[in-house]
């Protein structure tokens, strides 16, 4: 324990380096802006900045992206509460009570409770992250290639099972991602696969091109089809943040702690993320909370529960990323890509070989949460000022970042064409309700899973039962099968139930148009 605190102290000192502190501040500000702007999701924002980290020191790169991840879970709270415009699905549950409280004449109080929830949830989750990551990594040192393959399978199946929409569509997206990951030279036998005699394909398709295209270009194409609005999304209102008293916080401390724990645990589950955490925490309060009958009318519980869970999910998601090399959310999948761009594979060994870097990242989370709340308290009006920009202008800058990012990877024009192609694919996925996350994670985790599988087959004489007969690998594979089976069982049960009258969907007026609000993993 003393060693952990000593290393964390060294991490705080490392964060005081001017470059690291600048990246931390930049990440917090950009993450808040990304969270405020509807349509520019947290994952897309992190993806757009990923190419610019290629020339950075790895620690500064991860600090920048992690800071964006943390603050992005908080930034959209402003527009959700003040204008009923959720920056992304994370803030939909917050909207139900936050906007209601604002309409009741208490917008400052709603913003104050949101800030407290983000601060407490984030800090408690960060403490748990520091305490648990090394233990998880120490346990994972017992792993061999069968265990790694089992964990990767569990991560991929979790993404499928926890994704929204059609299970079949998620499977198709994952399969396509794995197919894209197989392009290039076989890492074991050196055979060319799907290269079509094109030299650039010999090294495979860069996962960064896939991510930037599917998320960035795909979203712009979707907006183009809907038609850009020439009017600002909202006008700025004069408001401030009113912090609750310690006595008021004490009255909801049990609920705050419960939601933080829920968010942290859900963050650990691969593929879940902040959106799932926010919806689950809100749902628990709606079902079992002290004022469950008043949820949706502007009560404190409806604000604190989803916000604390969403911010707490960040610390949870970083645990499997650092200790096992498995991303716990879409944003951590991008951060995993940043590690790999710098030639570092997160996993059990990282706590031994790069402990200084890891504890600097831990310290940056603590500092970033504090900076995020300070900026959120004093800079509401400048943050929501971004809503004055027309949608077409914002989309043009998104495309500019996409092209610069794709060209910066290998300085090859072919990557630009590939990015446009994957942008068209992302647009089709969005149009026909195919989730993009399984596709992207298939591209990232596919080569790792293939390498672990082939090493297992070579080491154990092609005995595939090794994935089920070894205790740890067998347990994880059983969890993967269970995780994949649960939604299938749910679908079968739903088909057998007699159909009743459809329930009325939740509607939100965004930019003057009504749209259905649905959770997205």
From TrEMBL:
Organism: Hansschlegelia beijingensis
Region (Disordered): 496-521
Pfam families: TctA
Cited PANTHER family: TRICARBOXYLIC TRANSPORT PROTEIN
Keyword list, A-Z: Membrane, Transmembrane, Transmembrane helix
InterPro entries, A to Z: DUF112_TM (IPR002823)
Name this polypeptide is given: Putative tricarboxylic transport membrane protein
Lineage: Bacteria, Pseudomonadati, Pseudomonadota, Alphaproteobacteria, Hyphomicrobiales
Transmembrane residue ranges: 22-50, 62-85, 110-137, 149-180, 261-284, 317-344, 356-380, 392-411, 469-492
Residue ranges of every copy of the DUF112 domain listed in the record: 21-441
Domain of life: Bacteria
